[in-house]
Design brief:
The protein is an alpha/beta fold. The chain has 22 helices and 13 strands. It binds 6-O-phosphono-beta-D-fructofuranose.
Length: 548
């Protein structure tokens, strides 16, 4: 069954939210803290090793109640049921959305149109397990009998970002293998990676759900030619494996059945790291750790399915984000992990969130009349504090931010970790409390500023505050807690798509550019121009003049 097609702005509660917004939009969060000593506790959700404090938001109990009413009026419960039961909720592509099945427990029975898909999932899991073990243990070797030292993932988008983010995030748990990622069709990318490799000891994993993606096939062919300078054709089978739904195309590339890891149409690329797309993860941290990643996600799935909305992390975070997006008209959301390991987390979320919810047409095919997906950006703290925090603190834009931190460091360096954590906590406090002119004045007098200086400089030192943040405080970065964190955001995306009445699981918006690039590619070879605007035509000419 399909998802409903209700316009959120036509619900009764939308109007109430609008009225409520007018009432509280200028309210200072700090005043709510002053009037309610329990606010921090009231707005904190503790679940497993997650401590999520949403109290530093421009919401009160009434706001959350109304937002939950909105979720109810839009049948979120029913949508969640359909999502987990394999209904064809990716309606425009006629597919189920079942990345959750990839991490389901071994006794699960999950059906798509009457067929239990779990046996296939188990089979592929076992294949990942055996394969990763044989590479790590050195049982499977390269063409000259040497053990593998390097693994290269060749893929782009969902076939790159998830695995690349997780491999870096879990590098503390990594084994002796060096893992590389080649994604961009920019030849300089692949060449820089190849420079570091020895063909005798490198394993290549070509990941492409469709096996038609220009970037991935170009890189795979370049790497294949490079490899064949040192090895014979029959060595390909030892060094190249593929992950794809398109078995025929993979075979045509020269990869045999035993080296193909199947994928399924019911897994979207950007949600596929839990499948064989995550092979580079399993190879680099070992299957047991990969399983813990899945287990973490599975626990978050259960939390999301069964918890009441008030205590439901993905639901609460999704609703608060809708509050800023649709009522405060915030355009962007920042993701600030206080862990260098999560360096690529915001980049990964950019695809997950923006490819899913960057849609302007509702589920009935009509243009939406309200804002949908937020622009996601961010970098780890503390580096980001020295880069763009100026704008978050004193700029003209409202930027709700998720601060993600870990209570325990992995290498046990408490001196560093106390400093990191003090910054993590200080920033959300500073963003909320700001610094009024009275405090700036006092400080300037204490530091013996002259009256002239005070008159001149004071306004620039004021922080208006009242800037919202969520604090996601997790005990420790482990494969399991990372699995939970990723699944938390996956479900947040789902909830928002349901409420915005859009289809979150297609991505037609990436097609037009691909089509035009195909045309222009031919024209770079052949000067017979098709019809282009004058600017594009000039640019094509400029390139041709200097290169052809
Ligand atoms: O261009 C967008 C996209 O289709 C993504 O959705 C996908 O993750 C990526 O390209 C790669 O696709 P494939 O795995 O089929 O190569």
């Amino acid at each position: 069954m399909a998802l409903n097609k209700k316009d959120p702005t036509s619900t009764n509660v939308w109007q109430k939210l609008q009225t409520h917004f007018e009432e509280i939009k200028d309210h200072q969060m700090i005043d709510w803290f002053n009037s309610n000593p329990n606010r921090a506790k009231d707005f904190t959700i503790q679940w497993e090793e997650f401590y999520v404090d949403v109290s530093k938001n421009r919401v009160n109990a009434e706001t959350l109640k109304l937002l939950i009413d909105l979720a109810e009026e839009l049948d979120l419960k029913d949508a969640i049921k359909k999502y987990f039961s394999g209904d064809l909720i990716n309606e425009t592509e006629g597919r189920a959305v079942l990345h959750t099945a990839l991490r389901a427990s071994e006794d699960a029975e999950i059906e798509i149109e009457g067929n239990n898909i779990f046996p296939e999932i188990t089979e592929v899991r076992n294949k990942i397990k055996d394969f990763s073990r044989s590479i790590i243990d050195g049982e499977r070797v390269g063409f000259s009998g040497k053990r593998f030292t390097d693994v290269v993932n060749i893929g782009i988008g969902g076939s790159d970002l998830g695995p690349a983010m997780v491999v870096e995030a879990l590098s503390y748990y990594k084994n002796h293998l060096n893992t590389h990622f080649v994604s961009n069709v920019d030849g300089d990318h692949v060449n820089e990676v190849l420079k570091q490799l020895d063909p005798e000891t490198t394993l290549f994993i070509i990941v492409s759900k469709t096996f038609t993606t220009q970037e991935t096939l170009t890189n795979a062919n370049t790497i294949r030619s490079w490899f064949l300078k040192s090895a014979d054709e029959d060595a390909i089978g030892k060094h190249f494996v593929a992950v794809s739904t398109n078995l025929e195309k993979v075979k045509a590339f020269g990869i045999e059945a035993e080296n193909i890891f199947p994928m399924w149409s019911w897994v979207g690329g950007r949600f596929s790291l839990w499948s064989a797309v995550g092979l580079s993860i399993a190879v680099s941290i070992g299957y047991q750790n990969f399983e813990s990643l899945l287990k973490g996600a599975r626990k978050m799935d259960n939390h999301f399915r069964v918890s009441s909305y008030e205590n439901n992390l993905p639901v609460v975070l999704a609703l608060i984000s809708i509050w800023y997006n649709n009522f405060f008209k915030a355009e962007t959301e920042a993701i600030i992990p206080y862990s260098q390991y999560l360096n690529q987390f915001a980049t990964y979320l950019q695809q997950a969130v923006m490819e899913s919810n960057g849609k302007g047409v509702d589920r009935s095919g009509k243009p939406v009349t309200y804002q949908t997906g937020a622009i996601i950006w961010g970098e780890p703290g503390t580096n980001s504090q020295h880069a763009f925090f100026q704008l978050i603190h004193q700029g003209t834009k409202l930027i709700p931010a998720d601060f993600i931190g870990f209570v325990k460091p992995l290498h046990g360096n408490i001196d560093h970790h106390d400093k990191l954590t003090s910054n993590f906590l200080a920033q959300t406090e500073a963003l909320m409390t700001g610094k009024p002119d009275s405090v700036v004045l006092k400080e300037m007098i204490e530091s013996r500023s002259t009256d002239i200086d005070i008159g001149r400089i004071l306004p620039f030192k004021v922080f208006e505050g009242n800037r919202p943040t969520n604090t996601i405080f997790i005990e420790k970065l482990t494969p399991e807690s990372l699995g939970k964190l990723i699944a938390l955001y996956e479900h947040k995306i789902f909830v928002q798509g349901v409420i915005w009445n859009i289809f979150s699981y297609d991505q037609f918006g990436v097609e037009l550019g691909k089509q035009l690039a195909g045309k222009i590619l031919k024209e770079l070879e052949n000067p017979e121009f098709e019809i282009h605007d004058a600017s594009t035509k000039n640019l094509i000419n400029h390139y041709r003049k200097l290169t052809k």
